[in-house]
Amino acid sequence: MSDLNTQRRQFLKTSLGAAAVAIAPGMLLFDTAHGKAEAGSSKVRWGMLIDTAQCKDGCNDCVTACNKENGLSGGTAATDSQWIRKIELKDIRSGRELSLPMMCQHCEEPPCVDVCPTAASFKRADGIVLVDRHRCIGCRYCMMACPYKARSFVHEPLQDQKPDVPRGKGTVESCTLCVHRLDKGQQNTACAEACKNKAILFGNLNDENSEIAQKIRSVASVQVRADLQLNPGIRYQGL
Amino acid sequence: MKLLASLLLCLFVSVAWAAEGDTPKLDIGKGGQCVRDPQWMRKNHMHLLMHQRDETVRKGNRIEQDGLKNCVECHASLSDNSVIARDDSFCVGCHRYAAVKIDCFECHASKRRTALVMKDGK
Ligand code: SF4
Ligand code: SF4
After folding, report:
1. Mutation test of ligand 1: which of A129, A172, A223 has the most ligand atoms closer than 8 Å to its C-beta?
2. Which of A24, A75, A177, A222 has the fewest CB atoms in 10 Å of its CB?
3. Closest A-chain CA to B72
4. Measuring from each residue's beta carbon to the nearest atom of ligand 2, which residues come in under 6 Å?
5. B60 — contact with chain A (CB < 8 Å)?
6. Which of A139, A213, A212, A122 is nearest to A176 (CA)?
7. Distance from C-alpha of A35 to C-alpha of B66, rounded to nearest angstrom
8. Whose CA is nearest to atom 2 of ligand 1?
9. Residue A76 and residue A84 in contact, taking contact as beta carbons nearer than 8 Å
10. What secondary structure letter does DSSP report for B29?
11. Which residues of A touch B66 (CB under 8 A)?
């Protein structure tokens, strides 16, 4: 759907271009040099394995690192953006307590993408689910549809955004798996890098030699709300 | 006849000069060699940016050279590092003149953040 739309725009542009060339040759120079850089490739599926046993109660390092990396305020009011948050779980019967980070789960079958009326929510070839803020109309359907409450709406005008992380009022946003880092060839997210307890392991799930794929083969891990069959890219160990 | 010609010439020159005086005087920042011919850029930078934004956001192709970040890098003012802060700032100056509203910088950073900033203090 999303690709179709860009193609349609391209088609309109080029057919317009053809007409313009006929009228005034030399007037229309765009659409010439399109350099091709490394694209998000479907050979990759980015994901995380979060070891809940390593994640310490009260530690907030991943959240702080995410806020810093992406230029979020760090506020936790209902109207503040939170791309990752620490949640506390308690099994009422056994009294077992857990603390773990929760963020966009980068579903393989993302309901946010299904419901988005403008194709602003989309999944990249490498499994990262993003909002294209050029198209987002702020309807917030995706926030309703997300079972993980992963998305935030920007309520106020923003200043001084990070050059790599554009954000703006009236649009929805959520964890991008530090897509700006990955596209530059870096192989780790800010949160995984910041966790001194090594509770977050980030990597390519499709590469069977990657650390994350090997670990997922050897330890028991679960997907949150696996019953929904969304196949999230984020997995939890010891949940 | 010669008189007429020179009169006409004067007229043309003054008209051209007036037009020149009318166009915005922009703070081009660091400037230097642009990514395409400047005349072409004046007319077509929006197409370049539009193409780049889809490539970047949807496909992950970050062609740094053609991105908005690169525009800001060269064209942010050397005094305040911004492309929109003042009336003669690079983006705003021309867009006001042409009466074309830009909303890029409601989301995108309008300031240069590299070593140049550090040097100028702030
Ligand atoms: S976790 Fe929510 S926002 Fe992220 S892909 Fe799944 S449905 Fe979409
Ligand atoms: S808020 Fe934006 S991304 Fe979410 S469903 Fe509406 S248009 Fe799509």
Report:
1. A129
2. A24
3. A163
4. A 115-116, 118, 120-121, 131, 136-142, 172
5. yes
6. A122
7. 10
8. A146
9. no
10. T
11. 35
Taking only Cα atoms into account, the Rg of chain B, rounded to an integer number of angstroms, comes to: 19
Where are the extended beta strands (E) located within A9-95? 46-51, 84-90
Residues 24-53 of A with CB under 8 A from B: 29-31, 34-40
Task: Read off the pLDDT of residues A212-227 as tens digits, 9 standing for 90 and up.
Answer: 999 999 999 999 999 9
For A93-151, give the DSSP string: TT--EEEEEEE---BSS-HHHHH-TTS-EEE-TTS-EEE-TTT-----HHHHH-TT---
For B91-117, the pLDDT digits (tens) are 999 999 999 999 999 999 999 987 555
Give A89's strand partners. A98
Structure tokens that stand for A223 in this block: 């997907």
Q: Which of A239, A6, A238, A211 is nearest to A122 (CA)?
A: A6
Rounded to 10°, the helix B90-98/B68-75 angle is: 100
Phi and psi at residue A51, in whole multiples of 5°?
-90, 105
